[in-house]
Design goal:
56% strand, 7-stranded mixed sheet, 117 residues, single chain
């Protein structure tokens, strides 16, 4: 069982930056991927960015060039550096973890990001 705790959300003005962190505790030895989803009011949850074993990364098109996902080593934390934030980035951001064992994904409780114009 892996527990995830996010931090770093907040309220900022457009153009400013935030850095989200997600710390995994428990059986982290089988981590295969970690990443971030977000959900805005009235919208479906969408993938923002993920990082997988080997350090490969994927980003949503709407955040490419502005957001950077990274991790520590040994791996139990993932970061999301968000630059040049826009009002449309406003959402509840969730951290998730996927495992090489095929166990059910773990999810954090979410951290709110609010960007005002």
């Amino acid at each position: 069982q892996v527990q995830l705790v996010e931090s770093g959300g907040g309220s900022v003005q457009a153009g400013e930056s935030l850095r989200l962190s997600c710390v995994a505790s428990g059986s982290v030895f089988s981590l295969n991927a970690m990443g971030w989803y977000r959900q805005a009011p009235g919208k479906q949850r969408e993938l923002v960015a993920r990082i997988i074993t080997g350090g490969f990364t994927n980003y949503a098109g709407s955040v490419k060039g502005r957001f950077t996902i990274s991790r520590n080593n040994p791996w139990n934390t993932v970061y999301l550096q968000m630059n040049n934030l826009k009002p449309e980035d406003t959402a509840l951001y969730y951290c998730y973890a996927r495992f090489s064992t095929g166990a059910t994904d773990s999810w954090g409780p979410g951290t709110q990001v609010t960007v005002s114009s």
